[in-house]
Write a structure and sequence with these properties.
The complex is a heterodimer of chains A (435) and B (404). Chain A is an alpha+beta fold. Chain A has 15 helices and eleven strands. Chain A has a six-stranded mixed β-barrel with strand order 3-4-9-6-8-7. Chain A is elongated, with a radius of gyration of 31 Å. In chain A, helix 1 crosses helix 13. Chain A is 50% helix and 15% strand. Chain B folds into two domains: 173 residues, no CATH class; 185 residues, no CATH class. The radius of gyration of chain B is 32 Å and the shape is elongated. Chain B is an alpha+beta fold and 404 residues long. Chain B has eleven helices and 13 strands. Classes of the chains: A alpha+beta (435), B alpha+beta (404). The interface between A and B is large, with 64 and 66 residues.
Chain lengths: 435, 404
Amino acid sequence: MLLYYLRLSALSYRRNPILSTLMVLAVAIGVGSYMVVFTLNYVMGGDPIPYKSDQLYHVSLDTGDPNHEDDPPEQLTYLDATALLDADRAFRETASSKFGGTIEPANPELRPFSIVGRGAMADFFPMFDVPFLFGSPWDAQADESMDNVVVLSRETNDRLFGGDNSVGESIIMNGEPYQVVGVINDWQPVPKYYDVNNGPFDSGEDAYIPWRILPAKNYSRPGNTNCWKAIDGRGADAFLNSECVWIQYWVELRDQNEAEDYLSFVNNYALQQKELGRFERPLNNNLFDVQEWMVEQEVLPDETRILSMLAGMLMAVCLLNTIGLLLSKFLGKSGEIGVRQALGANKRSLFIQHMIEAGFLGMLGGLLGLGAAAVGLRGIKYLLSSDFMVTDLIQLNVPVAMYTIALAVIATIVAGLYPIWRACNVNPAIHLKTQ
Amino acid sequence: MEIGPIFRTLLRNKLGVLLIAIQIAFTMTVMINAIFIINERTELVNTPSGMDDANLFHINVIGIGDDYNEQIAIADDLAMLNAIPGVIAATTINSLPVSGGGSSTGVRLEYDISQPSVGTAIYYGDNHTINTMDLELIAGEGFSELDVPYRDTNGFTNAAKTVISRQLAENLFPERAPGSVIGEYMFLPAGNEIQIVGVVEELVAPWPTSSVFHRSMLVPEIFLDGFSIYLIRTEPGQRDRVTPEVEAALVAANPERVVRALETMDETRADTFRVDSSLMVILWVIIGMLLFITGMGIVGLAVFSINRRRKQIGTRRALGASRLEILRYFMLENFMISTMGVLIGAALTIGLSIFISTAFNMPAMAWYYTPLGMLTLVVLGQLAVFGPSNGAAKTELAIATRSV
């Protein structure tokens, strides 16, 4: 029976080609646009590390200006970061921040080039599940003794060593030799949750070194630095002792108990600092897990939210359109329906026949909409251009495609319910008359 | 005019009417709000920076190793750059307008940190910066070579003089002409004073969406931290020829450094506004699709509803109605439906625009958007229904005599 009804649907399409095509187009456009916006939201606002996003927390300390009302600073000062590191209270923790470096390749033919690197503790790599291609992270000992070790990104390794296993090799960075202990694979979480200070879709860093080297050797800081208070004195030490924030601090806490313990520890630390004259604002320290931190940092661009609303309305218009067109189409078939009823079709089979026809049109609309969505996403990628990290991930995957087609079929069937009901309730007698 | 009969007919087909009216309402809402957003963004993207963007480009120079004498390198580089034919002026600067990255600070007229400060962007340049950027000095003067100290650490500035933008002058000294603030002093967060020696008409901050966008101060001070940005202005039309020459010259001058990130100001602006430009294109596409669908929907429903009334039309024609009267009847019917649609649409539009303004921090929509939108959609509806109405008007009279 299903095949029979499908054949009827196809015949019906052929008999009203313009109306049917308009309907399919309307469904395609509505569903396609909706899926484009859905994908954008999903890519830009999704959970970058779903299996442990509720165990990774960004520490937020309110060391801001007591005379000024605004949000707590988004990063930590050197004094606080080192104090937390030394206390070593979390299951895993890391301070991290960007540094600027120049690498002088051993090959004199290659010109020196500059990189943006990241200082991090050894825990950084297991915390964020950074995938390694060769080698492994350094150990906690290297953190404390500030060994000149480096983990390279895949691109940097390709550039310096042609992609070979370079573990054990030495590179000259910022004028000093660094030994390669590991090479990581492609790693560009979207959003770049571990450091959104230069934009949530910033590209990843080219090399990683133990974090303590950064303040010790006064490497330049291409990240964000914010100072609400004037620095007391001149020179690098004055800067490190100031209230300038430039460090991201993440902890991994395995359950709620650990989280509560850590937060009390942080608050106690803040109270101690208050007695020394720091932390002048009322106590306002927090642990934000990944999702909470993304919301706090307003990572999802406003633009995607505006587009969601507009695409929703577009979809509504398309559906209303579909209802109207289905109404026209089915009421226009009154003659055929009349004949079928006269030949013995009951309301149920008429209903099923037309549901299948609606579903058939929905399926066509869904397939076309999938194509439209693919074109739309390709267009958006082109507009945003490849500088924008997120573009590589803006693509349809199989679950999303299935969802699109299902959405189209269900939407068309729902849109068709009233028209079908109207059509099936038509008095056959009128339409059986001829002249 | 058959308003009465048409109205009663519409009442009998509420669903069809509602379908079209709501489609028109939604289309109008989306279209008007989208066009408003597009206009806002267009204005933003085209905001002049105060500089001669079309002829400017910039390049980074990063010294390697501890032996790199940045002070001498900068002096030599700038001298060399100025000698290249086609180059009008070159300067060193810490950041650039509309680039997305830079420094800001807060200034006060009295040193009292419990009082609010006026936020402003701060640019560190030299005595050639104003000329290189081609800023318009509306009061006072720029800097001389002697005014430019060197620093080798980060922190707050030590310079004694500054040139500020008109907006900053107005915010600090309301009601006073720019010329009258020359000679006044401002306090920086560290407590040091700095004297205003000049005011420029416009110099925007690096961040277009920031509240400090039109407030900046230019301070003569060169940071010796191994990292320099050179900004170069060329004669009109020479930029693309000069750019590779400059890069090659800088590379050749000194191997102990990395020369990178050559970019024109136009490219920098395009990068900063890429999301806005993309959004505008996407919105236009959405508007186009909506108008297409609604238009087609009106055509489709009109054809259907006219077909159902063939007999009625034929009867009227047989009783003497002219083609024009039939045409007018259906155009009027559509006009009434559209009017209902745009009235609903007006309410929705205003509601959505208020929501967007408050939720996304955008200015309120100007009053004329809504009436213009209403007019557009009524016209669209009339255009859409013209074809089918014309077809209706051509109905043969003979249909009236059929009994089926």
